[in-house]
Amino acid sequence: MMTRAEIGNICCSTAGRDKGKLFVIIDIPDEKHVLIADGELRRTASPKLKNIRHIKIIGNVSCSVTGTCDDRELDSQIRKKLKEIQKSIKE
Fold first, then answer.
1. Which of 3, 32, 63, 86 could form a disulfide with 57 if both were Cys (CB 3.0 to 4.6 A apart)?
2. Strands of 33-37's sheet in order across
3. Domains of the chain by start residue, with CATH
């Protein structure tokens, strides 16, 4: 059962070079694609376009990714949240 992708969801890439890496969905341009960012290599200013079939939704991020703060602050919040989740997965 697949959860519907929404802005702010945390997802894991299931295909491609970035397989296994965590991202946050920052936009949904159409029903087949999402724009994702990790705050490091893929920042909110230049997100990655990813096929929705190549991600797995694993949760929701607590910070706002709707653009209420500047890009640098948003990238910082995304990095922090993804590190927390990665740490909890490893434990």
1. 3
2. 48-51, 33-37, 22-30, 9-13, 55-60
3. 9-90 (2.30.30.30)
